[in-house]
Amino acid sequence: MAGRGRGRGRGLSINIEALGLGRGEVVPSIAQPPPLFPPLRFRPLPLTRSSELDYMVALRQELRYSLHKSPYYVNAPNKAKDIERYSDKYMLGANDGAQRWEPDWNMFPSELQERKKKKAKSSSVKPNLKAARKMKVQDVSKLLEQAEPEEAEEGIKKEKNQDEDDEEDEEEYDEEDLEEETDYNLAYFDNGEGYGDEDEDDDEGPTY
């Protein structure tokens, strides 16, 4: 129990003999840096040039260029710079000049096909300007001449109606004045001649 907790390096001892060194020997120091490239074990075959290989290389480059310009090619989003420059607005993107993809809609089901919305026709009635231009000055003067007597007749009718209304108002006013005057004279006038007659005839007491 007394030896516990002492000597932390006992479990991590290194066997020097396994490394090819004896006890007391010093590890040799490396005086030179390692080579930049390790030696090749398998060397590539020499490149043979021919017209067939040149055609295949050109075809590969053309295919790669067409894929980059096609609408199917997805570019990685550009990272925002720390400072926004005015010239960035006019810089063309990598896919701005690409061809627009126009699919053959006959190869797609009806559910996936595009549908063009029809514009609703406006119900407002537009004036016929051509017919209005053809109207002559004589036609306008005739219409004005026909409208003048009609307006005069309407004015006369309005004046007659106003006179009749005024007469009816005056008659109603006179009748009300007469009714008030006769009603006051008949009902509310008392000359006091019959005052005290009932008290002399009846001794039972005053009547209410």
From TrEMBL:
Q: Where in the cell is it found?
A: Nucleus
Q: Name one Pfam family in it.
A: RNA_pol_3_Rpc31
The annotated region (Disordered) lies at 113-208
The primary location reported for this protein is nucleus
Query: Which keywords does this chain's UniProt record carry?
Result: DNA-directed RNA polymerase, Nucleus, Transcription
* GO CC terms of this entry: RNA polymerase III complex
Question: Do you know which InterPro entries this protein is assigned to?
Answer: RNA_pol_III_Rpc31 (IPR024661)
Write down the superkingdom of origin.
Eukaryota
- Please name the GO terms of the biological process aspect recorded for this protein, alphabetically: transcription by RNA polymerase III
Q: Where is the composition biased (Acidic residues)?
A: 162-183, 195-208
Q: How does it assemble?
A: Component of the RNA polymerase III (Pol III) complex.
By sequence similarity, the record places it as follows:
Belongs to the eukaryotic RPC7 RNA polymerase subunit family.
Q: What does this protein do?
A: DNA-dependent RNA polymerase catalyzes the transcription of DNA into RNA using the four ribonucleoside triphosphates as substrates. Specific peripheric component of RNA polymerase III which synthesizes small RNAs, such as 5S rRNA and tRNAs.
Q: What is the name of this protein?
A: DNA-directed RNA polymerase III subunit
Question: Species name for this entry?
Answer: Plakobranchus ocellatus
